[in-house]
Amino acid sequence: MTAETASSPIPSRPGPAANDQTREKAGGGACRPDSGGQAGLISLGIDIGGTKIEGVALDRDRRVLATCRLPSRQGSQAVHDDTVTVARRLMSLAEVGDRRDGITLGLGIPGRIDSLRGTVDDAVNLGIGHMDLGPSVSRTLGIPVQVENDVNIAALGAACQSHSSLVGSGERGRGGDDATLPQDMGEMPQTRSLPPEKERVVVFINLGTGLAAGIIRNGSIEHGASGAVGEIGHIPADFHDFPCKCGQTGCLETVASGSAVEAMWPGVPHPLPDMIDKARQGDAHAKESLAVIGHGIAMAVQIVALTVDPSLIILGGGMTKTGQPLLDLVDAELDKSARASHFIASLDLPARIRLAPPDLPIGAIGAALAGRKAGRLQV
């Protein structure tokens, strides 16, 4: 894994030569340091996904000291062991030695999370029914551990990025028969000043296999009463009434997620870019499918805008690898609503939307920042 680079406040330090890269025995993952040892606070963050476990070590100033990645494995014991392996490797690369004071660990994982107890339920992609993840890893490593939902830690990691590291919308043409189609990919992003990090509200919309949102208010994750805050994918708001895995019909996730794109455009390795390309070429089915997807994502944006009213809406997840064409698609749909409603137009939603940095491990970074809560340290 190569060293990650980002704009402040997550700068990366110069790393060693490529032949210093170390391969982990457990699954062939890659780990590497990005600097020498660092005195003071070390924040470890690990993002546990269905295909990979990715970790970072940050210093007190949020600079990346080391990175590590392993393929993920199924089952509670394997997740525990691999998490411990990544954490120990990060501590070795950051040269913390035998000391454990001032070291915190944050973990992000899919499923239903009790962040107070550090437990995980129904992480189906990892084969976990119930697991006391935080307490077990904390006992093994001897450091405080904070466990959060994977979308929440991605939201925290994205929200801490500087304004210049997020991809914004370009000026687009208005109106016309192809108003729902993305325009020129090379247009320059707009800029928009934002409140200081501690004074802003940020919503991160994860456009992955499913659809969910994470809310960051004044630098902290919002959880709600049951941890279900941000589960916007299961709002039955779409008139197509497609069946949803949750048991309802018409859920937003059925028209605004990677699985929705794959269902409408099957048999293609990268369905959304292909759908966009075919729509540009005049394919009627592609245009119709793209309109459904664009409308669904725009609806998700409007829902978070009208319920949370954030200063910034960051789109992340696998679908956003499409880049600027996705932003243009969503903006065109929002423009339609704005033309029909002065109220919606007054919210200026396209100006609030950004794409998460595509090559930055925002999940692991967010986990590291969340982990400081376990040690009663200020993010």
Automatic annotation (TrEMBL):
Residues 1-10 have a biased composition (Polar residues). It comes from the Bacteria. Residues 1-34, 165-195 are annotated as: Disordered. It holds the Pfam family ROK. InterPro entries: ATPase_NBD, ROK. Transmembrane segments: none annotated. Belongs to the ROK (NagC/XylR) family. This is ROK family protein.
